[in-house]
Amino acid sequence: MDRSKQSVAFRFDPDLVEHLRRRARETRTAQTELAERYIAEGLRQDEHPLISFRDGAAGRRAVLLGSRLSVADVITTIRQNGNSLEQSAGYLEIPLEHVEAALAYYADYPQEIDAWIARSDAAAARERDALDRRRAALR
């Protein structure tokens, strides 16, 4: 499948366009890239109303609305609890509905979440290795 970008023309309110330009400058992001992100995330939020998006040290990620939990954290917890949504909700101390919302998002965007989990696991492994090296240096 050809994944090349397509040109689309829209007419926006001038104040909205200026707001987008200002935000693009502030974040040092290309205006088109920022608009594309906002549209994509808005569509995803319409489809998954308990999911939002947040920037962090490791990049932008899908999170449960009103919490600090990423969808990746919830999926990892589900896997660690034998795929039990109920046990995961109890462990995370969140409503079952929120665990189900994270799972629904994951079902629609598994590559995104799996890639986030893989990056997080790799970063944790690097941190463990660094800690082991520091401890070994003290022996």
Characterization of the model:
With 139 residues, the protein is mostly helical. It has a domain at 48-132: Arc Repressor Mutant, subunit A (Orthogonal Bundle). The protein has six helices and two strands. It has a two-stranded antiparallel sheet. The protein is globular. It starts with 13 loop residues before the first helix and ends with a helix.
Which assembly state applies to the chains in this document? single chain
The CATH architecture of the domain at 48-132 can be named as Orthogonal Bundle
Rounded average pLDDT = 93
The major pleated sheet works out as:
2 strands, antiparallel
**Secondary structure: helix percent:** 55-70%
CATH fold field value of the domain at 48-132: Arc Repressor Mutant, subunit A
- Write down the secondary-structure element order: HHEEHHHH
What's the total count of β strands?
A: 2
Uncertain stretches of 5 or more adjacent residues = none
Ends apart, CA distance between termini: 56 Å
CATH superfamily membership of the domain at 48-132:
Winged helix-like DNA-binding domain superfamily/Winged helix DNA-binding domain
CATH classification, class level of the domain at 48-132: Mainly Alpha
Shape: globular
Strand content: 5-15%
Return Rg in Å: 19 Å
Q: What structural class should be given to the helix and strand makeup?
A: mainly alpha
Count of runs of 4 or more consecutive helical residues:
6
Strand order, biggest sheet?
A: 1-2
